[in-house]
Every structure is written in structure tokens, then in C-alpha cells.
Amino acid sequence: MATANTVNGRIERARTELSPTQMAAGALFIAALGFTLLFVQDPLVHDSLHNFRHAAGIACH
Amino acid sequence: MFAEYLTRGVKAGLVAGLVFGLFMAVVANPLVAYADELNHAAVEESGHSHEAESAHSHDSEGTHSHDSEETHSHDSEETHSHDSEETHSHDSGDSHAGEGGGHHDSAVSMAVTKAVSVAAGGLWGVVLGGAFFGVAFFFLEPAIPAPDAAKSYLMGLAGFVTVSGAPWLVLPPVAPGAEQSLSAATRLPLYAGMMLAGALACLSAGYAYTRLRESSGPVPAVIGAAVPFALLAVLAVFAPENAVHGALSPTLETGLTGLFAFGQVLLWLVLAAAHARFRPSSESESESAIPTAGRDSAPMAD
Question: Which chain regions cross the lipid bilayer (chain A) (predicted)?
Fold first, then answer.
């Protein structure tokens, strides 16, 4: 707990708190999520989000 | 400690997701449906010259879904668009009018769209809460130049600028059915690029503020923090222009754009307020420093 309260300290802290496996799993999960959000342009998914995309200001017609 | 931060972020996200899901259900869903309806009424009235514009949707659906759509879309869709479409829908084909009446180029029914959109509104809050107030806040908290609870609000501001504010400088929210001059293939990278620019602007504004405050005092620090945002605005001026034109009245389009922008502002405000409120009590020695705004939106948590 000798890490200073700085951004570097927080990065250090995350490094000691999380095991490499946890970090790899987290990174993989985020990558999978991002990939899904970006590339699921399937009409079924895309169109059922139509109203939401308008409300969120992310519209593509 | 990381797990605690993530939990707190996701909790704030749940509260905001609840509010935004409600906004989706009672405000955005009916309005988008209504705007779609108006668009189609306008398009149908202007005759069939619109085929060139919306050929991608109507031609493909008009042919294959004739028999299946005709039967069940009749009661749900036809009722509200009846008066405007009755005149010519029966000779030109029912599926054309039945589908067009409620929903624009869609693969799913309006009911599914509404339900999925409400759920997505809730999850949107959770995703933003987890990403910004969970992960990003854990790393950036020491660098955010504000007293304890106000950090949450600055994070909310930075999150809004990153996710919505900066991209909207180039691609503001558009009303349903409006035609845009840039293609989706151009707009997606543009949106992502402006998100990146927004994030960089926020980070460098925070950095400049902290540095200048130490060396030259608060006034130059505020000016220094404003510079990245000015650069962001300049960047937006040089971005390709996206001309939008729709069949709706300009006043209604402005109102819808404003409403959707307001929805996102509300989402981030609730996120920040909930996050400030969920501060662990051990950290909140300076309880009086909590801005009253945090108290105002507290009932939304229930």
C-alpha cells in the first residue's frame, strides 16, 4: 500500500491487485464486447435498436 | 479496491440506466414512432417518386412479405396510420402501406424495437457507468482537479464530452427519417474519431489545469483548460459537413434533436449524482463538500 495517490500509483495498484489472468480475461471481455457492438450490423439487432439509437444521438440510416 | 470502484460505477450506472430506460419508454419511443409515421405520411403523399430514395427498404420488403405482413400488421399498424394511407394503400398493395405506416426499413416489428430500445437504454447506463465511473475513474481519480464529490461531476462532464458532446459537434442527433449527405461508412469513423478527440481534449484540459494552477494560479489554469476545448471546436469546423434534410418540419426536427441531447445530458447528470452519492463513507470526511446537486437528484435512486 506504499503506492502514492497518483495516476501512476493507481496503475501500479491495479497491477498488484489483479492477477495477469484476471487482466487478460478482462481485456478479452472488453475486446469481445467492443467487437460485438461495432460489427453486429445484423438487421435484426440494428433495427430493433432503432429508437434507442435515435435517443442516444447515434443515428445511421 | 479496483473491485469496489467497479461496483460503485456499475451501481451508479444502474440508477442512470433506470432513468434513461424510463426516458426511452415514455418519451423517446412514442416520439420516434410518431416522427416515423409523419415521415412516411409525407413521403407517401408526395407520390411514388420517393421510390428512388427509399428503394432499398421498400422494394426488398414489399415483395416477399406481402402475405405474412398483411394479416397481422393490419391491426397494430394500420389503425393509427389509417386516415393518411387509406386513400391509396388498397390499390397499390397492403404490405407497402402497412409496413411503411409505422416503421422505416425495419427487419423487426415496432413492438420489438420498443422493448429492445428500452432494455438498451438501461444497459447504456450500466455500460457507461462501468466504463467511465468504474474503470476510468479508478485510474484517473487522483488526477481529476476537484474536491472529493465534485470529481464525480467532472468525470460526468468528461464522459459526456467524449461519448456525445464532441461527436455531436460534427454529427448532431438527427430526427427519424432524415436523409444525411454523408454515408454511414463515413460517419462511423468520423464519430469514433471525434470521440477520441473529445477524450484527448478532456485529458489535456485536466492536465493543463493542474500544471498551470501550481505554477501560475487559478485564472491562467482555467484559461489553459479551455484551450483544448477550443481546439476541439476548431477541429469540428474542419470536419466534413453532413447535410441533413427530412420531411418533418424544421421546428419539430430541432425539438427532437434538442430532446435527444437533453436525454444524454440527463443520463450523465444522474450517473454523476449517483456516483457522488455512493461514495464510501470512510472517504467522505469532508461531507459538507458534497454539492447540493447530488442531493437534488437523490430521489431518482429509488
Answer: 21-40
pLDDT digits (tens, 9 = 90+) for B206-240: 999 999 999 999 999 999 999 999 999 999 999 98
Phi, psi of B109 (to 5 degrees): -75, 165
Q: Please count the structural domains in chain A.
A: 1
Q: Would an 8 Å CB–CB cutoff place B124 in contact with chain A? A: yes
Q: What share of chain A is helix, strand, coil (3-state, %, to 5)?
A: 70, 0, 30
Strand partners, B179: B245
A25: domain range?
7-55
> pLDDT grade, residue B196 (50/70/90)?
very high
Residue A61 lies in a domain: no
CA distance linking residue B35 with residue B29, whole number of Å: 10
pLDDT in tens, B20-66: 999 999 999 999 999 888 888 887 777 554 444 444 444 444 444 34
Please name the residues in contact with B13: beta carbons below 8 A apart, sequence gap of 6 or more: B125, B126, B127, B128, B129, B130, B133, B134, B271
How many residue pairs from chains A and B have C-beta atoms closer than 8 A? 109
Number of neighbours of residue B85 by Cβ within 10 angstroms:
23
Share above pLDDT 90 across residues of chain B, in percent, rounded to a whole number? 50
Binary contact (A7, B29; C-beta < 8 A): no
Q: Does residue A39 sit within a domain?
A: yes
Distance CA B144, CA B139 (A): 10
pLDDT in tens, B240-290: 888 888 788 889 889 999 999 999 999 999 999 999 999 887 654 444 444
- Round to the nearest angstrom and report the end-to-end CA distance of chain A: 52
What pLDDT sits at residue B137? 94
Q: Is residue A12 part of a domain?
A: yes
User: A44 — contact with chain B (CB < 8 Å)?
Assistant: yes
Show residues of chain A in contact with B108, CB under 8 Å.
Answer: 44, 47-48
Chain A interface test: which of B135, B163, B169, B174 (most A C-beta within 10 Å): B174
